[in-house]
Amino acid sequence: MNPKYQYDVHLPVNLEQGKRYPVIFTFHGKGSNERNMLGLVAPLAEDFIIIGVRGNLPLGTGYQYYDLKSLGNPIREMFDQAVADLEDFIQYATEEYPVDPGKRYLLGFSQGAILSMTLALTMGDQLKGIVALNGYIPEFVKAEYRLRSIKEVSVFGSHGEYDSVFPVRIGHETAAYLQEQTERLTFKLYPTDHGVSEQNQLDFLNWFKQDAELNTK
């Protein structure tokens, strides 16, 4: 199988033959790229396989996974295709690398967070957990997609109190929806705009370690 996405993969340095590792798939924001996400999870590189997935649509000097009719309004056909293609990519990477299929995580920012939450709802317990930073769940996903239970999926969601792209109201609405779907939700607000603060990063790094049952020292 040839993957539909360009990607960077970082394997643990001291890779043990025959061992399966937890994996984090990172999905960037609109107009960014996979390398901009690596710094967010680089401290986990000793224990996790990290796979940065690049959007397949050029946008300026960066990329995107789908285009928009307007802010917060994805072009449905492109969005549907991205969700299907990313699910296929996750399966491809699980077979291609020494991934523990019981410990597959997604981390996304903005457009990547939207996709991470959507994939959690369509893949259910095929994923161990997701981190969704400054995103939302499209209404058509909630109303029209074939959704799976995420009761067993761990979710770390965060939003900027002063987010000028997706107002904080959207963060609260997203958290309320997820709270109805799983008790394994951690949701936090940070005093930021549309970005990721140092404290936000520290919090989700610790969350990853705890959820994957790694040593948190």
TrEMBL record:
Pfam families: Abhydrolase_2. InterPro entries: AB_hydrolase_fold, LYPA1-2/EST-like, PLipase/COase/thioEstase. Keywords: Hydrolase. Residues 23-199 form the Phospholipase/carboxylesterase/thioesterase domain. PANTHER family: LYSOPHOSPHOLIPASE-LIKE PROTEIN 1, LYSOPHOSPHOLIPASE-RELATED. Belongs to the AB hydrolase superfamily. AB hydrolase 2 family. It comes from Paenibacillus phytohabitans. It comes from the Bacteria. This is Esterase. The keyword Hydrolase applies.
